[in-house]
Amino acid sequence: MKRIQLYISSVLAGVLCFGGFALGAQAQEQEGAFGVYQVEKKTEASGEFVSYEYPVLTGIDSFDQEILDKVNQYFYDEAVRTVQTEAANMEQVQAELQEYNSEAANALAFDVTCDSLYLDSDIFSVMQYVYTYSGGAHGYGYAVGTSFDLRTGEQLTMGDLLGCEEETAKEAVVEAYREHIIGQVENITEDSIRSYLDEMAYWKTAEGMYADIPAYGVASYAAGPQQALVTPEIVAKVKERMGTQNSGADEGAAGSAADTDAETSGQLTVINGILAPASDFIFPHSSKELLTDEDLTKLQADTVEERHYWSQLAINEILARYGYTFSEAQGGAAKEAYDQFEGKDWYEQAKPYCPSASANEMLYTYISATELENVNIICEWQKQNGCYY
């Protein structure tokens, strides 16, 4: 795909970072695939507290002007609507603060800036950064990504930007977070990233697609926003892995890495979209649903040893889904889990993605809240049935 140079209008102040290069306000016109064109940044504002910067595309003769007008109108309408709404909000907040904190009342802010503009082939992708301070202990900022197809005027999804199916795009995003965030930032798990997939901001750059989760989204405010770059290499790796999984699946199994119903498809999804036979697990649904008394009857056996074996294996199969490595030399339940899972195709595929070698860290940092509750349910069952040791 041919890169297109941007002409930055002289109305701009400062420097716009684009594709690894800094183009100043006095940059010369460049001719790309569409001829000479411009991207301007304009501002809507109200009073001293509210400012909204938005992009305007001009001079692209190769596209339908109605489509360009539609795209420009979208950004303009968002600017006007937001400025009006936030100006009213700020007036109300200021009036309330003036009574007891005049300093904060005079420092209120709602600012939107265009921090990333990307135009390549048919894609126009914008990241706007929103910063607001409404009188609390600190301000709050977050990214908003918006991307358009300049052939149709329609907004683009993650899959559109990455050139793949939507499920593949989501797996690629999870993979990017696994490589850059999971295991490096406290309390962020694959499960928490997946739970935020439909809410995260995303936008295109020359390097790939950025995915962004704001502070508080999956971690503490101190941890800051969690941003990962999804590169073409990551997408290719996920495509290859998903293709291998699908080609090796049973004819009656679902042909994707999406979560599947174990009872109807005979498979379930473990870490990183890897599929595993439901028959390999005592409780195939223990990652998604709390265990019931009826479920726990599967653990009943004639001897204490057998009850302990099956119940401990039910706990360890939760860790096995993450590719956790059990030590044969350790003996006991670890040896039993080793014998149960070692060598299985899905387990061998999962191992490289296990976020920790510590069982305690896995239990109290990486597994989901549902899984941890099920571990506690099984432990209580062990105590009631004399096999907790």
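[next item in queue]
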Amino acid sequence: MKSSQSFLAMALAVAGLVLGASIAPARADETCNSPYMANLIKGQEDYVHVWTLGVKGIGDGSDKLVTVDVNPASPKYGKVINALSVGGRGEAHHMGFTDDRRFLWAGRLDDSKIFIFDIATNPAKPKLVRTISDLPRKTGFVGPHTFYAMPGRMLVQALSNTKNHGGVTGLVLYTNKGNFVAKYPMPTTEVGGVKGDGYGYDIGINPAKNVMLTSSFTGWNNYMMDMGKLIKDAEAMKRFGNTMVVWDVKSMKPQKVLSVPGSPLEIRWSLKDGDNWAITASALTSTLTLIRQDDKGEWHAKQVATIGDPAKIPLPVDISITADAKGLWVNTFMDGTLRYFDISNLEQPQETFTKVVGSQNNMVSQSWDGKRVYVTSSLLANWDKKGADNQQYLALYHWDGKDLAEQWRIDFYKEKLGRAHHMKFGAKAVKTAETPQGGKLALE
């Protein structure tokens, strides 16, 4: 463990020297990508890759990576151009690019398999090059959720464990090619005055501050349970995370546990040069929380806004920060609403726009220029709505700063694909050049 931590510290230090002390973001691509990604899309994205849950009786019933042509100049604009099935159904969930953008990692929350796709050779037709099936055996963790690029490495946040399928879990570090490096348990003791609950969910790193934030959700027993049954189970509803953790990135050690009630999910750092704050949304309390330093350098979490009517539990499930850090998109699953917050005043964000985009919605991704906003529908197989309300789609909207205009919508059930969950942008002209370390780490 110590050797892997030393190696990671060295790699991060080299990355800092190469990319610049402040790690200024490239002006392109989605706003949620890791700052260690060397090559981001500039201008119009050509493809959107959608990690899709298989449904028995629909198409081949398998989880799959679906590729959609999203370039308006293409004759196939708004059409599915490829669907790569990976076999079986294991609760396909999130994805993430490696720092050199050559590979796209995707995970399943039920069987804990991780799939590595070659996204560089032919972005229009990804190729499955490796499947990792031994995460539980090697780490004691299950439910690989977040895939976060680091220099020559992929950091994976798990959601659960093999012992009791509860929420106590950890982080796992791999090489870009999928070789296991190290594991780091989430804190369950008091760190900085607050006791850790051991839960995990998302990852967000600020290299300039050598700070990583992690958030918290729930374990396998809950996320694989039918939502109707879960809501009625008072004990199960107590088993959700209520913390975020501040980590030292180079040592990979927790420095402080923050109290953030209601299961804080996605973490979004401000992308403006010189800014050192992040924001998250708590699903169960329907609130926005600001995380930043005080004058003494201590990190604190402060609730700054509510999302819709918390009493109705709209269930905010994804957020997307604008590149100028003045706006925030929030998807609320239960009412199928996409909301826009003016966050120019961090202490008092204002909800300035709302639009119902479907009976349910989940992920939201915007282009760097903020003009294109993509939405998908599926949350979890057993949490999605039933009957006619179980809409499954990928939709594109254009945003002019005042209103959203739908450009097209793909019905994933009609196309016999399944449930549309996470998405990542792709482009024909993206250079998958060497990593900030000259490619040496990625080749290990």
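[queue empty]
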